[in-house]
Design a protein that fits this description.
The protein has 4 helices and 8 strands; from the N terminus they run ββαβαββαβαββ. The chain has helices spanning 44-51, 62-70, 112-121, 132-137; strands at 32-35, 40-43, 58-59, 88-96, 102-110, 126-129, 139-143, 149-150. The protein has a 4-stranded antiparallel beta sheet. It has a 4-stranded mixed beta sheet with strand order 3-6-4-5. β1 and β2 form a beta hairpin. α2 (62-70) packs across α3 (112-121). The longest helix has 10 residues, at 112-121. The N and C termini lie far apart (73 Å). Bound molecules: zinc ion (ZN). Residues 20, 23, 25-26, 78, 81 line the site of zinc ion.
């Protein structure tokens, strides 16, 4: 008698669209944004308070949106959970660049998934701009524009 291989059929997890309830990236709570292994950390909650003063968001060039998205960790499953109409927040960033020279740039500290969603769907992405003073005010860790270390 030939023993039939009674291996149980492997349970295949069916790839289903994850809902907000089971998405770990939909959790709310105090939020900070860390950049470069958290060498820079910004207080996102405070940033949101600052930009809610009635200022107008600016529309970003597609190239800039792409750059922001390329430089942040994007969880694909979360893209359908965000509202692309809600603007992100751009802060100033100061620090030594790859070649050691002092650099000054912008960092999208809020809205990276919204930016990725806009890029994917081909719709414009807008962001509020923080001034240099405001960017320093929300900088929890990193270097300010004078090169002083925080945190
Ligand atoms: Zn989500």
């Amino acid at each position: 008698m030939v023993m039939k291989n009674q291996k149980k059929p492997e349970k295949k997890s069916i790839a289903k669209k994850s809902s907000r309830e089971e998405c770990p990236h939909c959790v709310s709570g105090p939020e900070t944004y860390g950049y470069l292994k958290r060498g820079w950390v910004y207080d996102v909650d405070l940033a949101r308070k600052i930009v809610s003063d009635g200022r107008d968001p600016v529309e970003l060039e597609a190239d800039d949106v792409e750059y922001c998205v390329d430089n942040s960790r994007i969880y694909e499953q979360h893209l359908d959970h965000v509202d692309p109409q809600y603007p992100g927040i751009l802060a100033h960033l100061w620090g030594p660049g790859e070649n050691g020279a002092w650099e000054h740039g912008h960092l999208l500290i809020d809205g990276n998934h919204r930016a990725a969603r806009c890029l994917r769907d081909g719709i414009p992405f807008r962001a509020y701009l923080l001034t240099e003073d405001e960017s320093e005010a929300i900088l929890l860790r990193g270097t300010d524009r004078s090169g002083n270390a925080r945190g």
